[in-house]
User: Fold this.
Amino acid sequence: MIIDFHTHNFPDSIAKYALEVMVGKLGGMLLPVGDGTLKNQLADLDRHGVDKAVMCPVATKPTQADIILQTAIAIRDGEMGEEASKRIIPFASVYPASRNYIAELTAIANAGIKGIKIHPYYQNFSLNDPRIVPFFEVVRDLNLIVISHCGFDLGYKDAPMSCGPNEIAKLFERVPNLASKFIAAHLGGFSGNPDHSTDILLESGCFIDSAVIMSDVENKEASRICATWPAERMLFATDYPWASPSHHIEWLKKNRPNESEQRKIFGENAEKLLGLKV
Assistant:
């Protein structure tokens, strides 16, 4: 079983536009491998030998939480096709500064959606800001999984670090018991931070995902983290459509040649975290 824990797709009507905007924001330094649609993603799952994928939308405005939730429910309940309902595990998203974040997070939990995606740069907050603590306390108390963009972002090259390992560690200090369902994406946010920065998170019990941008695939620190992070706390991820699943599968296998560890990272950890495996 291979589960890609960090992917994106967009409604057909805006997929082309959304990718064009993001490519522009990234200065052309990242190019998508798909067209951004759900249909194309399902075809690429087959093409690359991936069984399931977690869909990670980001609410970039307070008003987007409800439509994102309704889309997640529609995918899960088969309104966008039987194959999508079987293979896509949709997350939701809430803008942390929303006045209605408690109701919005509660609606996600009540709907049975497993978790949320956040992105501190796109949502204009820092994980080190004490004002964000109540938001994450609600996330924790509702038992929601949270996956956060972590580390440098190509689209925000001049922005101060808002979600690196130190910021994550400070959040865990302020919100006890959050870490067990927190996924620090992009290898724990190593990019843009000094080597070994992620080591501060080793004792926290949080997860990291393996999504690295293509320019970091040959980075020694990325390979070190991938090779040494506890296998039971690592999740296979690609940030699709911004990277090829096949390429990331081979990169992970190269760094983690132990087949038992591979099984945990590629699927077993995700099955347990998502409640797919009893």
